[in-house]
Specification:
Elements lengths: L7 H11 L14 E5 L2 E4 L4 E4 L2 H4 L8 H11 L12 H13 L6 E5 L2 H16 L3 E5 L8 H4 L5 H5 L9 E4 L22 H7 L3 E6 L12 H13 L3 E5 L14 H4 L5 E4 L11 E5 L1 H6 L12 H16 L2 H18 L5 E7 L2 E9 L4 E2 L2 H13 L2 E2 L1 E3 L5 E3 L8 H21 L1
Parallel strand pairs: 3-14, 5-6, 5-7, 7-8, 8-9
Antiparallel strand pairs: 1-2, 2-3, 4-10, 9-10, 11-12, 12-13, 12-16, 15-16
Helix pairs in contact: 3-12, 4-12, 13-15, 14-15
Bound molecules: pyridoxal-5'-phosphate (PLP).
Pyridoxal-5'-phosphate (PLP) binds next to helix 5.
């Protein structure tokens, strides 16, 4: 007998039986979502959540934005997918827009289907272009979980998931975790970078440094002088910069791309997540003419550059511009920061937002910065979830509340979250 999955209980049972999710669920998850609009999602029980994950940092203009839905629907009646050897008007228009908006060092766009794939293509491009093999990545960096992207993703836990040792060509260099600076936290002299010249000199086969310009894991934004120094070091050695803007791109940090915060001009930039406007999956590797000229192939993602996703992505960019959402995002990041500090909660160690990338790092002790224990973090996450706040936990030590709603979030919605956070922090503390 077939179950037609018409009620919430049978849908959840079928989800458990048939859908693979290779990680454990916190309480109340997975949420099976029936509809979504703006910053709000509604599950199959009718419970509403404020989505502080923006569908995993994809729906930058909010869920089901009418302009995006309309553009995608219109495209559905024209053409859907064609081979990457050919093209569609939507893809050409999106490529042009990305080149106009991105740093002037970049000239051409290659479309694929996901952030990991975009980064793998970037690695190939860098290796082919320089005829060198090695790539440096930042500690705490995240570039995806396919095997090539894992080679430059820092987390040991993730690297082990490949079931094989990672190749020796790629290696980590320090990132800037200023809140936990081991050198001089009050007057940065970029001491964390002191060994980097020597490391790079010992690895003359280094083709590129791949980096999130602001790290999504924990929302770590280095000071200007840190990026200035890295940029100078790498340029002096002819090493390419691959800027991974998969999460930071398209307005998330309060600028269209995070490179703009520092005036960086990478030779390669990658993007994904919001690029599809939430319709299907679309990612991009954007490169300088010099690199594109030398590229001799080896990548043909069958579904790269879907026309409907591209039309929706274009509509996303139009929406960001028409509704001034990038500036709004910068303002909301500041609002969120002030509102979180105003709680004066003893567990709030630091509030770190660049635009709406980042969140709150929780500590057991503000002086020693001892990380708040996993048990308390889990209870806080569960309490927020029960209160209708959809968030994720992030950070090198798993103690950051990652708070990244759609860029259209309002002050009232942020206040609503802050009110829930106040109650949950107090109740978890008094029960501990
Ligand atoms: C910075 C960054 N790079 C790459 C990726 C991988 O993207 P995808 O999951 O689409 O493969 C992500 C995804 O979270 C990301 O945040």
């Amino acid at each position: 007998m077939t179950d037609d999955l018409t009620n919430a209980a049978s849908i959840e049972a079928a989800d458990q039986q048939y859908v693979m999710r290779p990680w454990p669920h916190p309480a109340g998850e997975p949420v099976i979502i029936a509809k979504a609009s703006g910053c709000t999602i509604t599950d199959i029980h009718g419970k509403e959540y404020l989505d502080l994950t923006a569908g995993y940092f994809v729906n930058n203009a909010g869920h089901c934005h009418p302009r995006i839905v309309e553009a995608a629907t219109k495209q559905l009646h024209q053409v859907l997918q064609v081979s990457g050897k050919h093209g569609t008007v939507a893809v050409v228009k999106l490529a042009k827009r990305l080149i106009e908006l991105g740093p002037k060092s970049l000239n051409k766009v290659f479309f694929s289907t996901g952030g990991s794939e975009a980064n793998e293509f970037a690695l190939k491009l860098a290796r082919q272009g320089t005829k060198k093999t090695d790539v440096a990545y930042l500690e705490n960096g995240y570039h995806g979980l396919t095997i090539g992207a894992l080679e430059v993703t820092a987390s040991e836990k993730y690297r082990e998931s490949a079931g094989k040792p990672m190749g020796p060509e790629n290696y980590a260099i320090p990132n800037a975790y200023c809140y936990r600076c081991k050198f001089s936290p009050d007057s940065c002299a970029t001491q964390c970078l002191d060994g980097v010249e020597a490391t790079l000199d010992a690895r003359p086969k280094t083709a590129a440094i791949i980096a999130e310009i602001i790290q999504a894991v924990g929302g770590l934004a280095p000071p200007q002088k840190w990026w200035d120094r890295v940029d100078k070091i790498r340029k002096a050695r002819g090493i390419l910069l691959i800027a991974d803007e998969v999460q930071t791109g398209l307005g998330r940090t309060g600028k269209m791309f995070a490179v703009e915060h520092y005036g960086l001009e990478p030779e390669i930039m990658t993007g994904g997540k919001g690029l599809s406007g939430g319709v299907g999956s679309l990612a991009a590797t954007i490169a300088s003419d010099a690199l594109v000229k030398n590229f001799f192939g080896g990548t043909t993602p069958t579904n790269g550059g879907n026309a409907v996703s591209a039309a929706a992505g274009l509509a996303l960019i139009e929406t960001l511009e028409a509704e001034k959402l990038v500036d709004h995002c910068a303002t909301m990041g500041r609002y969120f920061t002030e509102a979180a500090w105003a709680l004066r909660d003893p567990w709030i160690g630091v509030v770190r937002f660049t635009g709406l990338l980042g969140g709150i790092e929780l500590v057991a002790n503000r002086d020693s910065k001892e990380v708040l224990g996993k048990g308390a973090i889990a209870k806080i996450k569960d309490g927020l979830h029960a209160a209708g706040m959809l968030i994720t936990i992030s950070g090198l030590y798993g103690n950051c509340l990652r708070l990244q709603p759609p860029l259209s979030v309002t002050p009232a919605q942020i206040d609503q979250f802050i009110g829930a956070l106040r109650t949950v922090l107090n109740s978890v503390r008094s029960a501990s």
